[in-house]
Amino acid sequence: MTRRPSRLIGIVGYPDVVALDVVGAFDAFAIAADMIGGSVPAYRCSLLSPSSEPFRAASGLRFTPDFALEHAPPGIDTIIVAGGGGIRTPSIGADIAAWLMRRAARVRRIASVCIGIYGVAPTGLLDGRRVATHWRFALDVARKFPALKVDPDAIYVEDGPFWTSAGITAGIDLALALIEADHGSEVALQVAREMVVYLKRDGGQTQFSAPLRFQVAARDQLGDLVAWITAHPQEHLTVESLAERAGSSPRNLTRRFVNSFGLPPGRVIEILRLDEARRRLLTSRGPIEAVAKSVGFRSADVFRRAFERRFRITPRDYRNRFCVGAPLAPRGFAALARGRPVDRPRDRAGADDSRTRVASKVGHSPKQLAPAAHEVTAHVMKPRGAPLQRRPGAGGRIRLS
After folding, report:
1. Which of 186, 204, 222 is the endpoint of a domain?
2. In a domain, 1, yes or no
3. Helix (H) or strand (E) holding 348
4. 43-49/67-68 β-pairing
């Protein structure tokens, strides 16, 4: 019987690290080891740091390293460099890069989370390779390390023995991908379920960022033109009008777009409009049709198809999943608030919830759930007996939060 190896994961932290970059990976591997079972744990994790002294994350969380880098144990299988502002401190970044150079030949994989790439890129190990980082730093990484092929949209990237990921929670995506590579999709899926996260989430970083690919690729005044398009998506944008603004002929402008971005102007315009639409979906509560029109789409159906093609998620699902405000109420609550019959699934007993039963479940009286002037929106329920809170400027809208 073949004995399964116990893989040692070295996670590199330092002062001002992002705590979730560290603990997210620790927990993912620990849960995987617990689920795999056996007398020998599938994974063991050690926290490494340039110094053996305790340090604090950017959030204030205090960490005590298991080892200083110079005393790191032999046999490390995978090194993961966490992200955080501290790694851009010259002394910290240089110490990590120097240690990676010494260890690279003796480990199976090297990974970085978020801006942990600033500790790996100076080694030259990533030169010529495709990499990911936090969308907000993609342009800076591309400028500082021109030999890297920065993908500003990727959640994580595997290129040979090197793995890089986007920011913060993407470190969990990265850990799940490493687990999947080691033990298969079924184990990774079990870990994802336990952590209540997606094994492979919909969409890329484009869901959260500006059109970084164009900022990274622009080499001349096209960058200014892209910025103008982004600020005026509702305009009637044609190759001719853009060429006039850029002081160029339509043919020459098209050639420059293709040379810089690999896309013709019309496709770039669509991408920029969709990115602005993504932002407006999260910052306004207007109808999706109105958002589509506000960014230059004359048809809501064309907008929906283009949005799903670009982001791999529908506009409505995107708003519901990522909106930081209170989501729209379930149909049952909205109907109940307006005094109409509630159309909702039947409960286990086979009977519909009446207003009294709904009120009882959320800890309020039926009177509190009487018809409102506008709309009731459900957020996170308060403990029983907590009063309803009216948001400033919300008019007649009430949030149960």
Report:
1. 204
2. no
3. none
4. parallel
The verdict on 122 and 223 lying in the same domain is no
φ, ψ for residue 251, nearest 5 deg? -65, -45
Pair (254, 192) in one structural domain: no
Assigned domain for 2 exists: no
Strand partners, 158: 163
CATH code where residue 306 lies: 1.10.10.60
Q: Is residue 37 part of a domain?
A: yes
DSSP per residue over 94-127, as a string? Answer: HHHHHHHHHHGGG-SEEEE-GGGHHHHGGGTTTT
Exposure of 362 by Cβ count < 10 A (0-12 exposed, 13-18 middle, 19+ buried)?
middle
For 169-226, how does the pLDDT look when each residue is reduced to its tens digit (9 = 90+)? 888 999 999 999 999 988 988 898 888 876 556 555 554 544 445 645 555 568 778 8
The residue out of 322, 350, 365 marking a domain boundary is 322
Cβ atoms within 10 A of the Cβ of 350, count?
6
Query: How many whole angstroms separate alpha carbon 143 and alpha carbon 16?
Result: 24
Give the pairing type, strands 55-56 and 43-49.
unpaired
The two structure tokens encoding residue 298: 């004359």
Domain around 342: 331-400
Cβ neighbour number for residue 182 with a 10 Å cutoff? 21
CB atoms within 10 A of CB 116: 31
Reply yes or no on whether the pLDDT at 362 is more than 80: no
